[in-house]
Amino acid sequence: CSPPCLLVTSPVTHKPVTMASAAATKKNNKMHAIHVDKLVLNISVGESGDRLTRAARVLEDLTGQKPVKNSARYTVRQFGIRRNEQIATHVTVRGDLAKDLLERGLKVKEFELKRENFSNTGNFGFGIDEHIDLGVKYDPSTGIYGMDFFVVLKRPGARVSRRKHARGRVGAPHRLTKDDAMKWFVQTYQGDVMA
């Protein structure tokens, strides 16, 4: 090894390991792989009543799950909403269905997202204007709704911070960052992140 190369002793084998090989090992580590934890689909109607019921039906047709209705946190007179009035509906999807819906949503966006779409905790979200772009047949009685997609990413071991017994903290090297999420998006979907 040349002088700038740094040698570290492996805690397992007690043999010297170069920093380059340590980085390669980290890349191949299956505990470091990023997965889709869940996808949240949200339709914010801005009013209760028939339009909200139809929006919930759109989500149910899309996912096969029963959506939950969301209430307004406070009264906004300009928008004509009152506190605790049901104004939106959302559904949380996991597993293969989440990946399928995410891919359909990204196809509508042509696999292009802005840097601002990614949060500092390694999650990302985007919106589409018309739900029929996802391949749902247009129904005149239902209408057309826009919706928000929010994707939560995780690495194996994230449960450590949420479980009841022997709860711990996820260490800084294992936590997801904005750059990790953007790199995952580009590698997984061959997408573009615009500045």
Q: Provide the low-confidence segments as ranges.
A: none
Helix content: 25-40%
What is the terminal-to-terminal distance?
39 Å
Secondary-structure element string: EEHEHEEHEEEHE
What is the overall silhouette? elongated
How do the strands line up in the largest sheet?
4-5-3-8-7
DSSP strand count = 9
Assess the beta-strand content as a share of residues.
15-25%
Number of H/I helices: 4
In angstroms, what is the radius of gyration? Answer: 22 Å
- Global structural class: alpha+beta
Structural notes for this entry:
- The protein is an alpha+beta fold.
- Helix content is 26%, strand content 24%.
- It has 4 helices and 9 strands; from the N terminus they run E-E-H-E-H-E-E-H-E-E-E-H-E.
- The protein has a 5-stranded antiparallel beta sheet, covered by helices on one side. The chain has a two-stranded antiparallel sheet with strand order 1-2. The protein has a two-stranded parallel sheet with strand order 6-9.
- Strand 1 and strand 2 form a beta hairpin.
